[in-house]
Design a protein that fits this description.
With about 775 residues, the chain is mostly beta strands. About 5% of the residues lie in helices and about 50% in strands. It is globular. The N terminus is likely disordered.
Amino acid sequence: MKKSLFIILVLTVNIAFAQQIVTGVISDKTNRPIESVKVSVKNTALKTFTDAAGKYSIEVPETYSTLEFTKENYKDQVVEITNNVINITMSLITDVDLFELSLDELMNIEVITASKKPQNQKIAPATIYVVTEKDIIEKGYYDLTSLLENIPGVVPIRTDHFTFGGQRGFLSNFSQTLLLVNGREMQNLFASETFISTQFATHNIKQVEILQGPASALYGANALVGVINIITKNDSSDFNKTEYHTEIGTQGTQSQSIVFGKNFADFRISGSFRYFRSNLWDYKDFIKDTVNFRQAVPTKAFPVNQEFKKRSWSLPYAAKISYKGFYVGIEGYELQGSKGLENISLDYTNQSDFRELALYYAGVEKNITAKLKINSEIQFYKERFWGVNYTFDNVIYDTMVKNGHNPEFPLTEQEIKDNFMMAYSQQSSSGSKRYKGNVQLDYEPSQTLSIIGGYTFDEFDLLGLALSTERLNPSFDETRSIENSMRKPFFRQYKNSLFLQLQKTLFDKLYVTLGGRFDYHNIYKSIFTFRSGLVYTPFQKTSIRFLFGQAFREPNIFELGASSVNNVINELNPAKMNTFELGINQSFTSNLIANVVAYRNTATNFIEPTETGGFVNSGKIINVFGVESQLFYKTGKIRTEISYSYVRKDADEYAGVSTVNLGVYPHRITGGLTYNITEDFTVNSRINYYSEIKAKHGNKDINEILTIPSFSKVDLTFSYTKIKVYDVEITTQLFVTNMFNSQFYQPNIRIGGPKQFLQHGRQLFCNVIVKF
């Protein structure tokens, strides 16, 4: 049954200083007030929210006369305000009935990552895929990696330490992708990697926006092939509640989470905390596989009863306080893992990895005038990490044999500890730091013109690693010197950046975007990036995009020579890429929508290792052509979507053979079917298909190309929402991953020792969400 909410507007208009003061009360048909309805002046940044009594008050500039009323799970409504309005009673917002909404209404999503301002996804000047909180509930996404599995053009590869992979044919450890949380960078500091592990769960996610293609003109370095922007619930001013999540699952998985936000007139406090622990998947049989895992490694060197114990826990946290445009906050995590399958180890039980990353920020966001808004923010990051490896090394083993070890006997525990233990640590250090300051101006002189510009100062003060074969917590030397591998001079880097973007609407059908960014780095000097976009809507249900963008990735400290025994500083330039895109979004009917995009990436200056252990800029031009497509269909209680990605990467010369798409899946298909058994009970099934792939052998000593067979993985999710118990709303989820317990492999694209990576078998999880 459709539920209706009636908005009773008592509008009092006072004209003073060219402002109209509009007040009102919003309540439902039982006269209960509706809290946290966003009331905004259309085409401005002016907004307010109803209080616990359903009341609001907002100043409307004389030249504007339209108010918008929005609230999660309800249809938006627009009201025209005139000076003679005294009292209006009307049905303004209707509760969302998923059975009756068309796909157009369901997919009418607002994004911010494409232009650093809110805009409709259909006219955004970027290829951008959106996953909402509703998608997360229905499809059983429990962490960021499971979410990315279903995004066209994205390939995540689980190692049960952190996720390898990438976007649009550039696969490594997501080091070509920029990871943001609420628009703020959350890369690790040490190597500017997108380190995705269990710390990025979905309990606090309102929306994830995955931008495909270069984005350096807006976001600077490392947004080479795309951006992942996590928008959290607690950071959203319309989140005015408390949620408690509890999860249990196979492999001893359990978590407890709380997310809260509370508005007190102009004051707001919010936060999120989660504790997660799991043994993850047990690969004890796979690590002994001398064909599929540790090929060409002396079998007899390994302990006969070798165990695989993978324990992981994480503690992500966030908190924010705001008052009248001023705010302070923190975003961070603590994380412990056991290295997973990343390397071939002689001791999987005792190796470990600990990480701490915290971002502290403070800023102000103010409307200088009705047309001009400023945001100024300072940020401070701090990071430390440490751990221990027991990685097998053929050179060390051969030396031991020469010195008398009998190769017919496995290594003893003491021999493993004395010869193969390697501790790496910043534990006794002050930690790496990053200092960043941003100023952004948003100017909208008219409803058809938007100008955004800003300045950023960014300084890294990084630390290397103390290494030891004897102590788990070696001492740390923070003396800055070229001879000190932990504190070399070039670890401190800084840059200044300016960016400007103009967006213009022509004839109500043509949306033009032009933008550019200038970065000056103390090492790499000047670099300029440019973007342009043309979005044409010739018909109401048709949107055509023409896009061009540039991007760059800066060398990390390893590539600069941080680990060089000769204290060499490599002379490197940033890697660069240009991308052209053509896309079309077409609604054939209200229940059938298609989206297709074709792109071409051209990358230069890619940084690659040499045989002597250094790094150089490759003189090779890398071309990648690809197509991403989506089809959405809805009929009655059934919704379905299917996505197909095609990638063709230039041939690589390896093992005496020229191979196209080496290390890149040429075909990827994802599909999903959602059935609403009732308004609140949903079943979702998903399938992921990976085509056959040609890849390098993961052991760098084996010059061979592997053929990894194609495979499919099926997941199933049951979700039951809006269970009412007094004033509490409960959501329950049951999801099964790899339902048929299929066995399949993915490539070791970082060539870290293992031939390939086995993916986990069937897993079962149950999640309960309680909303207060």
